[in-house]
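So, does this match?
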Amino acid sequence: MTQPMPRMSLLSTILIFMITAVSISSAQRTKVISPPEFANQGKDDLPFSPGILVGDTLYVSGEIGFDLHTGQIPKDFDAEVKACLDNIGIVLKAAGMDYSDVVSAQVFLTDITQFKRMNAVYASVFKTPRPARVTVGVAALAVPNAHVTRATARVLPSGDPLKLGNIFRRKVGDLTSG
């Protein structure tokens, strides 16, 4: 019969685990992904980066479907959705990735009745297996003429998506065994 772990030993184990987790995560490098096509993003009027790469994970800012050359939002809804996806594709490419690397997406529509049209364009870009996705109808977006925006996150180029979790499990197992 095994004895329960003394309270102090349990607290020590948790503390060591937390320190290990912090040192692993702080060892990951952070890199701003800012393709030349997005030269205006990150300025005072648009204070954000198109993408942030942390280790093997790319976080892509929400993008609207504006034409990067004209700065205009297409009048046609399908063209706006395609431009939005193309803008995300540019950020992915700058990070050495493509649409097949995306594992999560969020869609914000100002007119939820356009869901089927958005879905058709989305399906033409994201091939199976498609990323997990949330689609939400919203009253408005930050850019008045925009009808769709999308943010993507947790892009893993290759390797085990649970790699960090496996490191944590191995460390905790080492600490609690024996």
In short: The chain has four helices and six strands. The beta strands are 30-33, 51-54, 57-64, 104-109, 132-137, 148-155. Confidence is low (pLDDT under 50) at residues 159-178. The helical segments are 7-27, 77-94, 115-125, 163-176.
